[in-house]
């Protein structure tokens, strides 16, 4: 697949066939990496579609964890190719998809049938190495000897007792929560775990166009809290 960027900065995912845009038409045989031109003389930029490009074309459902928060989870847990990871709830499958691009041992739990089907299709579309289970993690975790458990749940404290049995000593229990009351309740229940950090991340993009150099008017501020804890 290819990502094609038009002169307005819009990105189009292309797989096959002639490309029809408001800027003109490009025949399939003429689509190749680099700069191409439509029949109206408009220039387009063509790249191979990477994982991050495919993310913008997944099927939407519940709200997703944004890349800025996912980056913090990956960085502060130090996951690698052989890390054994369990994720819950899957939602659209975005966090699990990212984790599956790094580790060969990722399993994600989703109890909602609707979200399970969305996540399953998205994970397949993203070609990420993830096993998905239609299962409620509040009822237990089958996997053992885990390095990391990531949670995006309404009541993540209900998983702590199961995580204690499934994580290695020193293994990470990471919970993403949208409000501080969840954080307080989660931390109160953290028996058998060392609380390492409570984090929120902010992202501010800049515009650089000649001498016009400034931050964008709207930054990505608070989206959620990330609580990092480790099994004692």
Give your account of this protein's structure:
With 232 residues, the protein is α/β, with parallel strands linked by helices. The protein folds into 2 domains: 2-49, Vcp-like ATPase, Chain A, domain 2; 55-231, 3-Layer(aba) Sandwich (Rossmann fold). 23% of the residues lie in helices and 33% in strands. The chain is built from 6 helices and 15 strands. The strands form 4 sheets. A 7-stranded mixed β-sheet has the order 9-8-7-10-11-15-12. Strand 1 and strand 2 (11-14) form a beta hairpin. The longest helix is centred in the middle third of the chain and has 14 residues, at 113-126. The protein is elongated, with a radius of gyration of 21 Å. The N and C termini lie far apart (45 Å). The model has no long low-confidence stretch (mean pLDDT 96).
Q: What does the radius of gyration come to?
A: 21 Å
Tell me the name of the CATH class of the largest domain: Alpha Beta
Quote the average pLDDT. 96
- Give the domain tally: 2
CATH T-level fold name of the largest domain: Rossmann fold
Spatial separation of the terminal alpha carbons: 45 Å
The percentage of residues in β strands lies in 25-35%
- Helical fraction equals 10-25%
Q: How is the biggest beta sheet arranged?
A: 7 strands, mixed
Q: Could you give the order of the helices and strands?
A: EEEEEEHHEHEHEEHEHEEEE
Structural class: alpha/beta
Number of helices: 6
Largest sheet: spatial strand order: 9-8-7-10-11-15-12
Relevant CATH superfamily of the largest domain: Vaccinia Virus protein VP39
Shape: elongated
Architecture of the largest domain, according to CATH? 3-Layer(aba) Sandwich
